[in-house]
Write a structure and sequence with these properties.
Blueprint: E1 8-12, H1 21-34, E2 39-43, H2 66-70, E3 79-82, H3 84-89, E4 102-103, H4 106-112, E5 115-118
Parallel strand pairs: 1-2, 1-5, 2-3, 3-4
Length: 119
């Protein structure tokens, strides 16, 4: 019996070192992709900080998520989007990010993905 995973949109809204949510969302993305699912990532609000190139350890020694983000292409996760307004509100630019991203709209992405997970 063959099971096909529906396309998934994983939305990251929380700062990477404020909790384990970002790491858990990335785990879901990698697991889904390893089973052949189409995974799209969207970073907005405080989640845009997950994409910064100069991440350090968190106050409790949490590791940066940037190495995992840089490995996304190994899992055929090529659709990574960021909310432009979230970047601008935090004084960030695409050039400051550690991986290639595309400016995207959450509305359009939700329309294209029947399964949406928010972290």
């Amino acid at each position: 019996m063959s099971t096909v995973l529906p396309p998934q949109l994983i939305v990251f809204r929380h700062a990477p070192l404020s909790s384990s949510l970002t790491a858990e969302g990335l785990d879901l993305a990698l697991l889904s992709a390893s089973f052949g699912g189409r995974v799209t990532l969207f970073f907005c609000d405080e989640g845009v900080f997950s994409l910064l190139d100069n991440q350090g350890k968190g106050p409790l020694g949490e590791k940066s998520v940037l190495p995992t983000l840089k490995a996304l292409t190994l899992y055929d996760i090529d659709e990574v989007y960021v909310d432009e307004a979230s970047l601008m509100q935090r004084g960030l630019t695409i050039e400051a990010l550690g991986i290639p991203v595309t400016i995207g709209s959450i509305k359009d992405l939700i329309d294209d993905n029947p399964c949406v997970f928010t972290f």
